[in-house]
Amino acid sequence: MQPIFATQTASISELKTNPSALIKQSDGESIAILNHNKPVAYLVSTDMYERMMEAMDDMALSQTVSARMNDGQTPIKVMLDDL
C-alpha cells in the first residue's frame, strides 16, 4: 500500500473531464491523482509549488554552505563594507 500525501483525491478521468473544477475544488490544497486507486501524480496550486521550489533551493544552498565550511580550507573573513 502506497501512502497518499493529500487530503483530497481524484481519478485521472475526473482530471481529464474538468481540470478547472478540480483546481477550484482544491481550495489551494494538493490533490492526489489516482489511477486504479494508486497515486500517480499530485495537483498542487502555483503558490504551493513555488513554496516547494523555494524550500528545495534553500536545502541545496544549505548543503553547499555545509560542504564548503567542512572542506578543510581556512575561511576568509570579509566585511560587508569592504565589498
TrEMBL record:
Protein name (database record): Antitoxin
InterPro entries: Antitoxin_Phd/YefM, phD/YefM_antitoxin, YefM-like_sf
Pfam family, one: PhdYeFM_antitox
Origin superkingdom: Bacteria
Function (record text): Antitoxin component of a type II toxin-antitoxin (TA) system.
Segments forming a coiled coil: none
Family: Belongs to the phD/YefM antitoxin family.
